[in-house]
Amino acid sequence: MALKPLTNAGWGFETNCFVCEPSNPLGLHVAYFHDDEADLVNAEFTFGAEHSGAPHYVHGGVLLAVLDEAMAWAAIAVAGRFAVVQSTATTFDRPVRVDEPHRVEASVHGRTDTAVTARASIVDAAGRACVKARARLVVLSTAVAGAAIGPVTGADIRYLRPPPPEEST
């Protein structure tokens, strides 16, 4: 298994991502990796009481953020697209306990020039699924990417939605 770290630093724009940016002082600091043999994105994490909803369970919103980020990284690393979640559905099968290690895995199940479908799950140390999500992500256009992160240039343009064909008059 060849794990490659997924970081924002190589894209030529600054980010303060709440989930994955290590320099965000209020962030979750989840480090994601691309397993290029299995074509998965994964991360291991343990959240403390400061991330709880119920006293012993991690807040569902925190878990949704971890799943969302995993699927976005899968869109980049596996599908080769800058994309954001448009719609998602999540199932909570068992609680994610604070102070216990868990793992998130995300995979791509379909891709076009304009959309990516992905799935992600959070599993406990025993390998039992705790939370599962599926999502449709939309590939960013040049204009939307520019507004969100600044100009995308050079080889990174391939990660964007292709421009529509010019209409003939």
Descriptors:
Thiol Ester Dehydrase, Chain A; globular; alpha+beta; 169 residues; 2 helices; 15% helix; seven-stranded antiparallel β-sheet
3D architecture notes:
The chain has helices at residues 60-77, 142-149, and strands spanning 3-6, 32-35, 40-45, 83-92, 102-111, 115-124, 129-139. With 169 residues, the protein is an alpha+beta fold. It has a single domain (3-159), classed as Hotdog Thioesterase (Thiol Ester Dehydrase, Chain A, Roll), CATH 3.10.129. A 7-stranded antiparallel β-sheet has the order 1-2-3-5-6-7-4, with helices on one face.
Q: How many H/I helices?
A: 2
State the fourth-level CATH superfamily: Hotdog Thioesterase
From the alpha-carbon coordinates, what is the Rg to the nearest angstrom? Answer: 17 Å
Lateral arrangement of strands in the main beta sheet: 1-2-3-5-6-7-4
How is the main sheet built? 7 strands, antiparallel
Give helix % range: 10-25%
**Strand element count:** 7
Low-confidence stretches: none
CATH class: Alpha Beta
